[in-house]
Queue: 3 jobs
Job 1
Amino acid sequence: MILHGLDIDTKATADNVRRFLTNDLQRYLQIAGTNRIDLKSPQITGMPKGSPVGNTNEQHYVEVAYAESVVCCVSRAISNCRAFSNAILTKKYIDGLPDWKIAVELQYSFSRYKDLKRIALCEFADRYLYQTTHNHLDVNDLHVYK
């Protein structure tokens, strides 16, 4: 198997991940009937909680099951990141803390924090791609290749 290429545009990839975690994830959470704080919980299984009953509700159940699977993949991707990436992603996109406060809490200079945040966002893209592929979800790759 030939990979797209290992040379990614880290700035554009980080921007894609930032948009996904800020905007798109909120929609998946709403459809799945969960909240950002639940991403920290080990209770997310990725398994649908209901079963389709009749054709009129079938699309709704499919959308809910898909959203639950995406949320589960996000949770697993974040939890599988290295410690510093996990801390940055959790504090920023789950706890909703501002960047300056995360930098202070993690005891990084702001410029070092910005570098580490970009690395964390790119690591998330890698781990999310693995999770969605492993779970046979048809989602867009968050990477931007050079």
Job 2
Amino acid sequence: MYALIAVATSVMVFLPAVRRAFRAQPLLYEKGLLLMDSVGLGVFTTVGIQTATAVSDEYSIFLLSFVGVVTGVGGGIMRDIMAGDRPYIFVRHFYASASIIGAVICSLMWEQCGQAVSMMSGTVIIIVLRLCAARFRWSLPRA
């Protein structure tokens, strides 16, 4: 699995034909970036919840959700800062909201449904919410 991901990433980054295709069609690049960002947010949020449950036997829904959101959103902030961009959480407000909703649902399902089902559900919910927010231009009210 990891080898497949490494090969796919290498093909996208190092093959000149693929790079030219992304440069020629910036919309394709933006959609690919949105999809990968959504997947990363979902996966890192649920992995943060998994890590929090592994560290302690006594935890609350708030603690699991908090650790998941900090893990998911924090990775995106670090990526944007290292890329020299303005962090996406300050540009699009629904970024963190999708993570919060998915983390709470994953945390609520953890005891009843088990680790695998709750992690998959949380990840899918975050991805769907992020993609819907981008498609339908959802945003939170401004202060």
Job 3
Amino acid sequence: MKNLLLIFFTFFTLMSCEKDSAENLPLIYSIEGKWLFDMGADLPNTMYEFKDGIRYTYYADSNDLSLAYWESLNISDAIPGTNDYIFSDNILTIDLNFGNIGDYPLIFECDGNRINFQDPNSPDRYDWIRLGADFNDCN
């Protein structure tokens, strides 16, 4: 009986340590995917897609700026020219071409579906919204 209690206590202790350490890990979000440039009350007219180290840019060429419109676009619809990027430790580094490099600290909100894009050279805040994200429960 003592051995059974000892095994149970050891198992419980190990499981609770695993749970505690997993809860203390920082959340890691990905930049990969499609993001709409949030213009506040206006409808977005720009989308960025981050895929395999390349940023693609899309501009609206339609009056229909619905979710279905943005979801219908693929890489062949992007504007000519791309930008290489690296995303590490919540810093987005974009090669803007011609020797220009942008380093942007990102603050993820709403379970990684909104980016508070803090441009260190601009006092204004602007956001990117992950395409298709549901913000009903997001504060």
